[in-house]
Amino acid sequence: MRPGRDARKAPAPPGGITRRLRLRRDRTLILMTLPAMVLLLLFNYIPLLGNVVAFQDYDVYDLGITGSPFVGFDNFTRIFEDYRFWEVLVNTLVIFLTQLILFFPIPIAIALLLNTIMSARVRAWVQAIVYLPHFFSWVLVVTVFQQMFGGAGLVAQWLREHGHEGFDLMTNPGFFKFLVTSQAIWKDAGWGVIVFLAALAAVNTDLYEAAAVDGAGRWRRMWHVTMPALRPVIALLLVLRVGSALNLDFEQILLQRDQVGAGASEILDTYIWWTGIKTGDFGYAAAAGIFKGLFSVAMVLGANKVAHMMGEQGVYSKK
C-alpha cells in the first residue's frame, strides 16, 4: 500500500487528537477568524471594564475612572427609588410585547407564503421587494411614514378632499406603540424571512409527497410537515427575542420622541441617554445599563427554560 493511505487510516492517539495537532489542522480557520476575534475583544469585552463607573461618583472631566470616589451601590439605589425609571421600564415592556405579538409572526407567514410560490422568478421578485426596506435608515423610514400618515400626509389629504376629517397618527400618543411596530414590520419583516426560508429549504420533500399520498391537503401538509420543521427555529428566535426585550431601536424612538412626548415614547435606552449621558451622570447611566444586562440574561434563562419544558432545545441544550 501507499504510505499516504496508511497514514490516513492510522488510528487516533489514545488520548484523542492533541492540541498541537488540532491547532496545526485548523490554523487556516483560526487565521480567518482572528480579525473578528480582535474586533470583538476591542469593542465588546474590553469596554466592560468601564462598568466600574456604576459604583463611582464618576467625574469624566477632572478625576476620571482612577480618581473618582467609590460610592458602592448608591447609583443602583437611585435607580430603584426613581419612580420615573419604573414607568419607563413598564413602557418599554409594553412596546416590546406589542412588537412580539404583532411583528414576530409576520416573517413566519411571509416565509410560508413564499414557500408555496412555484415560480422561481416570482419568488425572487417578491423576496427582493420585501427585503429592500431593511436597507433603509430609520430617518428614511420615519420620513416615509410622516409623508403617508402625518397631519399633512397623503392619507389625511385624501380624506379631506373627500369631505372627511383628517388625522395625524404620527403625533398620537395612544397609537405610538402600534406606529413603531408597523414601522418595524415594514422595515425588518422581510429580513427575518431569510432564517425561516433556510429552515424550510432543509425539509425533506419526500415528507410532502408522503402526506399528499395519504390524502393530506395543503393546510394539513403545512400544519403537520412544515410547522414541525420550523418549531426549533421559532423557539430559538423567540428565546433570543425575549432576551432582547429592553433593546428596542434607539434611533427609531429618539427620532419620534418629541412628536408624541416622553410619556408615551420613552424607553429605557432613551431614558438612560437623557438622564444619564446627556446630563453627565455617567454613574447612573452605567448602573442602568448593568440592570438592563442582568434583566436580559434573566429573560433569556427563563425563556430557554420554557423552551425546554416544551421539548425544544432553545439557545442551549439542558444536558
Secondary structure: elements and pairs:
Elements: H1 3-8, H2 19-25, H3 27-45, H4 64-67, H5 74-81, H6 83-102, H7 105-115, H8 120-131, H9 138-149, H10 154-161, H11 176-201, H12 205-213, H13 218-243, H14 250-260, H15 262-265, H16 268-277, H17 282-309
Helix pairs in contact: 5-17, 6-11, 7-11, 8-11, 11-13, 12-13, 13-17, 16-17
Walk me through what this model shows.
With 319 residues, this protein is an all-alpha fold. 69% of the residues lie in helices and 0% in strands. The longest helix has 28 residues, at 282-309. The radius of gyration is 26 Å and the shape is globular. 18% of the residues are buried. Residues 3-7 have low confidence and may be disordered.
Low-confidence stretches: 3-7
Q: Write down the overall geometry.
A: globular
Alpha carbon gyration radius: 26 Å
Note the total helix count: 17
Q: Indicate the percent of residues in helices.
A: 55-70%
* Total count of strands: 0
Distance between the termini: 44 Å
Sequence of secondary-structure elements: HHHHHHHHHHHHHHHHH
Overall pLDDT: 84
Q: Which sheet architecture does the biggest sheet show?
A: none
Which structural class fits the helix and strand makeup?
mainly alpha
